[in-house]
Amino acid sequence: MQELPGFGFTGFRSFFGGVQYMDPLAKVNLIAGQNNSGKSNVLRVIRDMSEMIGKQPEGLDIPQTSNPPTFELAVRIGDAASVHAEFCAAQNITQGQQVEFFRQILKSPAIDLRGDGGVWIRAKIDGNAPAHYWQSVALGDSDARQAVAAYIQSRMSSYSSDPRENAAEVLRQLQSLLTFPRVRFVQASRRIEDALDGAAIIEKLAALSRPEWHQDDDRKRFSAITDFLRWVIDDDDATLEIPHTRTQLNVRRGDLLLPLEHLGSGISQVIMLAAYASIEQKTVLCIEEPEVHLHPLLQRKLLRYLHDETDNQYIIATHSANMLDSSIATVFHATYTQNGTELAFAGTPQNLSDLCYDLGYRPSDLLQTNCAVWVEGPSDRVYISHWLELLNPELREGIDYTIMFYGGRLLNHLTSTDPEVSEFIKLRRLNRHLAIVIDSDKASAQSALNATKRRVRDEMEEPGLVWITQGRTIENYVPQELLSAVLGQLYPKKKLTANTDRWSDGLRPVASKDSWPDKIKVARAVVRRWDSGLNHLDLHPKMTALAQLIEAANGHNGSAVVRKPKSVPVFR
């Protein structure tokens, strides 16, 4: 589909400071912020973008300030390499000099507005001047003006002695690549049925369930919706049925047939949203506050469905911190300041933490999954998530379980009687289904486990799981051959401690003054090459116990759970 790569604007409603960017955009994008922070105004701009690029806002769309700024809209066409290739093909540019001239033009700050190799079209509505006048001025006055003139002359276009006129001609040609995707807008609390241009959503679903012979692939979309229903209500045999009257959606569970709304407003709304997203195809869907009536777990399941099972792009305005799943969504933080609404890309854990506090949440409020797995740090998370996927691919982080960090300092450098250790042990009261993974840090089989780790093991084991590594650290579960190969590839010149057995400290530099390898980088490289098999040390039984804990926490029927059989690690 034609996705929206990125955009920025100012001079519209609550946006009256500098240009605020939503860039880069992904498949699923969240705009999170407090009420009245301006989130909905972003959706309004996306909805009307194709018309607004050459039009001055009117009425209440004009910022209600004493000196409202000129409306400005910038739209990202794409990255320089892809735009260059597409433009040269469209304009039949084959001569080497012309190709190079245009490449130099795209590097101009007048086009690469954010300095990251992007290509932007910028419209500024200022009096009677053409919408792209100010961008042509900037390009004509830039260091690229000679490349612009040379390009225009070589193409025998309307060359002018005025560099700005030449720049305007280049921008007119470049704008031919700017296309706007189809956009649909779903307002907060609105009935999804009313968002389909008057056609009932039930009619659309009926068509998907019983398609014409030449549209048989539509049945797959209906099956995806049914699978989502089963996932949401945790019933593998449930079916979605549409009566011949097409007046309602029914859910069959065994011998019981009930209207969808009888399952509760939350279930009904999340299924309807998923259905609407499946009916629409290759569309930018702007959704306002989908969390209304939805339990935090339903919010996450909806987000996962939108990402995995549909082909739309999503811009979602929310004030729910429970939707901030950065693994599948790009997150932007909207705040209202004295300079109007400001948007910030929330791309780091600290950014997300700040956003949660702005929304009035504490970290403990966000532990909404049924099982919490505590690990020492981010590299442990990479390994545990991958091993769970190898054992039971049905388990989803953020839905079935959450991985939290306790930090090595807690158990390595504090005494067993320290208050922080006592508080950590009390976490079990918050969640019966709790697991903690602890590096033994033993240098040999004869080494003793420290007193702090022994206390945690003894006081937290039941009814949860305490997993103390059979080797020195979690890295010792990586087969020696694989770990050595990865370290040799990533750090060919770094001298590290010999990796000979399960007590080896294989990531430790030989010289104490040398830096350590990046554990996260190493972990990611390892899991990319680890295709299957967990039968190494006690990894398979420990991962099986962890998977069973997560499955039990989520009410999975043990007899119906399909796990991969025990086998030796296979890696590339």
Automatic annotation (TrEMBL):
GO molecular function term, any single one: ATP binding
Residues of the ATPase AAA-type core domain: 28-325
Presence of keyword Secreted: no
SUPFAM superfamilies listed in its UniProt record: P-loop containing nucleoside triphosphate hydrolases
Chain coiled-coil ranges: none
Keywords noted in UniProt: ATP-binding, Nucleotide-binding
One Pfam assignment: AAA_21
Protein name: ATP-binding protein
